Amino acid sequence: MLLETVKGYINFEVDLEFIKRLDEVYIDARYPTNLGLLPYGKPSIEDTKRFYEFAKNIHSKVMNLLERETM
């Protein structure tokens, strides 16, 4: 949903399949015991590391784009 919102304003390459996988993480706060679960259950340590690295990469790309915009 966020990707669709910013698509017209921020343009860079992302792995759409990974975005879809990350989107599967359950974040509905109504059921806190299920917070952060994937459809198959708790993410593995490797899944968690990949999600973290992916998010860090996206953050870096957005910050670089914003820095260029303010120059």
What attributes characterize this protein structure?
mainly alpha, 3 helices, about 55% helix, about 0% strand
Structure notes:
The protein has 71 residues and is an all-alpha fold. It has one domain (2-70). Helix content is 55%, strand content 0%. The longest helix has 26 residues, at 45-70. The radius of gyration is 14 Å and the shape is elongated.
Secondary-structure map:
Elements: H1 2-6, H2 16-23, H3 45-70
Radius of gyration: 14 Å
Which series of helices and strands comes N to C? HHH
- Structural domains: how many: 1
Question: How many β-strand runs?
Answer: 0
List unreliable stretches of 5+ residues: none
Q: Work out the helix count.
A: 3
Mean pLDDT over the full residue set:
76
The span between the termini is 29 Å
Principal-axes shape call:
elongated
Largest beta-sheet characterization: none
DSSP helix fraction: 40-55%
Structural class: mainly alpha
Strand content: under 5%
Short description:
By secondary structure, the chain is mostly helical. It is built from 3 helices and no strands.
